[in-house]
UniProtKB/TrEMBL annotation:
The family this protein is said to belong to: Belongs to the class-V pyridoxal-phosphate-dependent aminotransferase family. SerC subfamily.
Catalysis performed (reactions): 4-(phosphooxy)-L-threonine + 2-oxoglutarate = (R)-3-hydroxy-2-oxo-4-phosphooxybutanoate + L-glutamate; O-phospho-L-serine + 2-oxoglutarate = 3-phosphooxypyruvate + L-glutamate
Transcription recorded as keyword: no
Limits of the Aminotransferase class V domain: 2-351
General function of this protein: Catalyzes the reversible conversion of 3-phosphohydroxypyruvate to phosphoserine and of 3-hydroxy-2-oxo-4-phosphonooxybutanoate to phosphohydroxythreonine.
Modified residues (N6-(pyridoxal phosphate)lysine): K199
Cell compartments where the protein resides: Cytoplasm
PANTHER family in alphabetical order: PHOSPHOSERINE AMINOTRANSFERASE
Enzyme class: transferase
Chain positions recorded as pyridoxal 5'-phosphate binding sites: G73, R74, W104, T156, D175, Q198, N240, T241
Annotated GO MF terms: O-phospho-L-serine:2-oxoglutarate aminotransferase activity
Record-given protein name: Phosphoserine aminotransferase
Length: 363
């Protein structure tokens, strides 16, 4: 089967096989990795290796902390303002710029309002031919007194992705939950990067935060301890018990990514997968995607059937062909194919063949 779920998403087959082999008796310890102490030497080695592999993959500069946290993407919607309004460089500034490019950046705004003053800019637009697009980051209206700028460069629900960033000295905070490790990024352009693990990294329950050191909070009094970046950094992400199994599995995924040739190789593969699918959709009158080409996501591809009455049949028949979880997000409708790193090219080819056949029979 090929699983097109937006998250929790499919993991690389080789990683799943390795995890299965090691499941009960890990490293000859006589128990599973999920049953040993996070303070044991064996686990600390796993944790440190995972961090180093991630640093290598993303070329994370030395002045960034890599934090393995709990709480998911939404936990970070709170952690970011709680920490950054207290950051050393910000001296108590409590205003931030938030841009809305889709459902997830909007959800971050709703949470962010609890902690400070937000300048919110909705950058969603339509092109002349009614395609969904966004204001180019070079043209965002940013204030000059913000502690940070929050954005979501890949909108999982909307299928919108952007890669260029505004030129600014103000720290950019990016929710990369559904695009991290899918292509190279310049970490030094960001103040904070965060990502829930359950798409391109590993099982849910683990959340990555990559934080520039000068953005660690100055005072921790108002920050829940489990969301406190400084506490996490000072305790090697082990202030409280970390999600150990998810961390171990993320480590296997990072090793797999290195074996595949790293994020540059992933980018080549991901672009190819995305263009296979978009090209077919564009050629067909039976299917459509309504995102302007420049902002189409490589990771999440929403598409619609011309006759929506066929939606349920499409999903059912796809499942019978081993193509899982194609039903679109409830806010958008239609279909959505999430094609993260672990989705092989054959998965997308099989999907396109199925779509062709479905169109031939029902078109
Ligand atoms: N941000 C993005 C871009 C997402 O896609 C999601 C979930 O799909 C979230 C945040 C929320 O993540 P979580 O469910 O881990 O809180």
């Amino acid at each position: 089967t090929f699983n097109f779920c937006a998250g929790p998403a499919m993991l690389p087959a080789a990683v799943m096989q390795q995890a299965q082999q090691e499941f009960i008796n890990w490293q000859q310890q006589g128990c599973s990795v999920m049953e040993i102490s996070h303070r044991s030497k064996a686990f600390i080695n796993v944790a440190a290796e995972a961090e180093q592999d991630l640093r290598d993959l993303l070329h994370i500069p030395a002045n960034y902390k890599v934090l393995f946290m709990h709480g998911g993407g939404r936990g970070q919607f709170s952690a970011v303002p709680l920490n950054l309004f207290n950051a050393d460089v910000n001296n108590g500034k409590n205003t931030a710029d938030y841009v809305i490019s889709g459902a997830w950046s909007k959800a971050a705004v709703e949470e962010g309002y609890k902690y400070g003053n937000l300048n919110v800019q909705d950058i969603r637009q339509k092109t002349d031919d009614n395609l969904r697009t966004i204001v180019d980051p070079a043209n965002w209206q940013l204030s000059n007194n913000a502690a940070f700028i929050h954005c979501c460069p890949n909108e999982t629900v909307d299928g919108i992705e952007f890669t260029n960033l505004p030129q600014t000295e103000i720290p950019i905070v990016a929710d990369l939950s559904s695009t991290i490790l899918s292509r190279p990024i310049d970490v030094s352009r960001f103040g904070v990067i965060y990502a829930g693990a359950q798409k391109n990294i590993g099982p849910s329950g683990l959340t990555l935060a990559i934080v520039r050191e000068d953005l660690l909070p100055q005072t921790s009094s108002a920050i829940p301890a489990v969301l406190d970046y400084r506490l996490a950094a000072e305790n090697d992400s082990m202030f409280n018990t970390p999600p150990t199994f998810a961390w171990y599995l993320a480590g296997l995924v990072f090793k797999w990514l290195k074996q595949q040739g790293g994020v540059t190789q992933m980018a080549t593969r991901n672009q190819l997968k995305a263009s296979l699918l978009y090209d077919y959709i564009d050629k067909s009158d039976f299917y459509s995607n309504d995102v302007a080409k420049a902002y189409r996501s490589w990771m999440n591809v929403p598409f619609f059937l011309a006759d929506e009455r066929l939606n349920d049949t499409f999903v059912e028949q796809a499942q019978l062909h081993g193509l899982l979880a194609l039903k679109g997000h409830r806010m958008v409708g239609g279909m959505r194919a999430s094609i993260y790193n672990a989705m092989p090219i054959e998965g997308v080819q099989t999907l396109v063949s199925f779509m062709q056949e479905f169109e031939r029979v029902n078109g």
